Protein backbone atom coordinates (compact mmCIF):
# COMPACT_ATOMS: atom_id res chain seq x y z
CA UNK A 1 0.00 0.00 0.00
CA UNK A 2 1.49 3.37 -0.94
CA UNK A 3 1.81 6.20 1.55
CA UNK A 4 -1.21 8.47 1.78
CA UNK A 5 -0.68 12.12 0.88
CA UNK A 6 -3.33 14.66 1.75
CA UNK A 7 -5.56 16.10 -0.93
CA UNK A 8 -7.08 18.69 1.43
CA UNK A 9 -4.76 21.56 0.46
CA UNK A 10 -6.80 24.43 -0.95
CA UNK A 11 -5.51 27.84 -2.07
CA UNK A 12 -7.31 29.46 0.88
CA UNK A 13 -5.94 27.05 3.51
CA UNK A 14 -4.57 28.94 6.52
CA UNK A 15 -0.89 28.20 7.14
CA UNK A 16 0.56 27.99 10.64
CA UNK A 17 4.34 27.86 10.42
CA UNK A 18 4.76 25.41 7.57
CA UNK A 19 1.71 23.30 8.47
CA UNK A 20 -1.86 23.67 7.28
CA UNK A 21 -4.86 24.53 9.44
CA UNK A 22 -7.10 21.78 8.11
CA UNK A 23 -10.86 21.37 8.65
CA UNK A 24 -12.02 19.34 11.62
CA UNK A 25 -15.60 18.19 12.04
CA UNK A 26 -16.50 19.47 15.48
CA UNK A 27 -19.17 21.18 17.56
CA UNK A 28 -16.61 23.73 18.74
CA UNK A 29 -15.39 26.87 17.03
CA UNK A 30 -11.65 26.91 16.46
CA UNK A 31 -9.01 28.17 14.07
CA UNK A 32 -9.75 25.56 11.38
CA UNK A 33 -12.85 25.85 9.19
CA UNK A 34 -15.84 23.59 9.88
CA UNK A 35 -16.53 21.60 6.75
CA UNK A 36 -17.57 18.18 5.55
CA UNK A 37 -13.96 17.31 4.68
CA UNK A 38 -12.62 15.90 7.91
CA UNK A 39 -8.91 15.63 8.61
CA UNK A 40 -9.27 13.40 11.67
CA UNK A 41 -11.25 10.77 9.77
CA UNK A 42 -8.63 10.62 7.02
CA UNK A 43 -5.73 10.42 9.47
CA UNK A 44 -7.40 7.67 11.50
CA UNK A 45 -8.06 5.71 8.31
CA UNK A 46 -4.52 6.03 6.94
CA UNK A 47 -2.47 6.03 10.15
CA UNK A 48 -2.05 2.26 10.01
CA UNK A 49 -0.46 2.43 6.58
CA UNK A 50 1.59 5.59 7.07
CA UNK A 51 3.33 4.60 10.32
CA UNK A 52 5.20 1.80 8.57
CA UNK A 53 7.01 4.10 6.13
CA UNK A 54 10.59 4.89 7.09
CA UNK A 55 10.82 7.62 4.44
CA UNK A 56 7.81 9.78 3.73
CA UNK A 57 7.90 12.37 0.96
CA UNK A 58 6.41 15.66 2.14
CA UNK A 59 4.57 17.17 -0.82
CA UNK A 60 2.86 20.12 0.87
CA UNK A 61 1.90 21.67 4.20
CA UNK A 62 -1.01 19.28 4.69
CA UNK A 63 1.38 16.33 4.71
CA UNK A 64 3.21 17.96 7.65
CA UNK A 65 -0.13 18.31 9.43
CA UNK A 66 -0.86 14.61 8.84
CA UNK A 67 2.58 13.69 10.22
CA UNK A 68 1.93 15.84 13.29
CA UNK A 69 -1.46 14.22 13.94
CA UNK A 70 -0.05 10.73 13.30
CA UNK A 71 2.70 11.47 15.83
CA UNK A 72 0.08 12.56 18.39
CA UNK A 73 -1.94 9.39 17.78
CA UNK A 74 1.22 7.33 18.36
CA UNK A 75 1.80 9.15 21.66
CA UNK A 76 -1.80 8.39 22.70
CA UNK A 77 -1.33 4.72 21.83
CA UNK A 78 1.84 4.54 23.96
CA UNK A 79 -0.12 5.87 26.94
CA UNK A 80 -3.07 3.55 26.34
CA UNK A 81 -0.89 0.43 26.14
CA UNK A 82 -0.18 0.75 29.85
CA UNK A 83 -3.85 0.99 30.87
CA UNK A 84 -5.66 -1.95 32.43
CA UNK A 85 -9.22 -0.64 32.25
CA UNK A 86 -11.43 1.61 30.18
CA UNK A 87 -11.73 4.18 32.97
CA UNK A 88 -7.95 4.34 33.35
CA UNK A 89 -7.62 4.79 29.57
CA UNK A 90 -10.18 7.61 29.63
CA UNK A 91 -8.24 9.36 32.42
CA UNK A 92 -4.94 9.01 30.54
CA UNK A 93 -6.47 10.32 27.32
CA UNK A 94 -8.04 13.28 29.15
CA UNK A 95 -4.73 14.06 30.87
CA UNK A 96 -2.88 13.92 27.55
CA UNK A 97 -5.48 16.24 26.03
CA UNK A 98 -5.07 18.96 28.65
CA UNK A 99 -1.30 18.80 29.11
CA UNK A 100 0.94 21.33 27.44
CA UNK A 101 2.38 19.48 24.45
CA UNK A 102 5.62 20.41 22.76
CA UNK A 103 5.21 22.24 19.47
CA UNK A 104 7.65 22.83 16.61
CA UNK A 105 10.54 25.09 17.54
CA UNK A 106 10.52 24.17 21.24
CA UNK A 107 13.48 22.25 22.66
CA UNK A 108 12.61 18.58 22.92
CA UNK A 109 10.11 18.48 20.05
CA UNK A 110 11.24 15.37 18.14
CA UNK A 111 10.35 16.56 14.63
CA UNK A 112 11.95 20.02 14.61
CA UNK A 113 13.90 19.17 11.44
CA UNK A 114 10.76 19.22 9.26
CA UNK A 115 8.69 21.91 10.98
CA UNK A 116 9.09 25.68 11.03
CA UNK A 117 8.75 27.49 14.32
CA UNK A 118 5.50 29.50 14.60
CA UNK A 119 6.12 33.07 13.42
CA UNK A 120 4.40 34.82 16.33
CA UNK A 121 2.54 34.27 19.60
CA UNK A 122 -0.83 33.92 17.83
CA UNK A 123 0.46 31.08 15.62
CA UNK A 124 2.04 29.55 18.71
CA UNK A 125 -1.36 29.47 20.45
CA UNK A 126 -3.14 28.05 17.39
CA UNK A 127 -0.57 25.28 17.01
From TrEMBL:
The keyword Cytoplasm applies. InterPro entries: ARPC3, ARPC3_sf. It comes from the Eukaryota. Belongs to the ARPC3 family. Gene3D superfamilies: Actin-related protein 2/3 complex subunit 3. One of its GO terms (biological process) is Arp2/3 complex-mediated actin nucleation. Component of the Arp2/3 complex, a multiprotein complex that mediates actin polymerization upon stimulation by nucleation-promoting factor (NPF). The Arp2/3 complex mediates the formation of branched actin networks in the cytoplasm, providing the force for cell motility. In addition to its role in the cytoplasmic cytoskeleton, the Arp2/3 complex also promotes actin polymerization in the nucleus, thereby regulating gene transcription and repair of damaged DNA. Keywords: Actin-binding, Cytoplasm, Cytoskeleton. It is found in: Cytoplasm, Cytoskeleton. It comes from Sciurus carolinensis. GO terms for cellular component: Arp2/3 protein complex. This is Actin-related protein 2/3 complex subunit 3. GO terms for molecular function: actin binding.
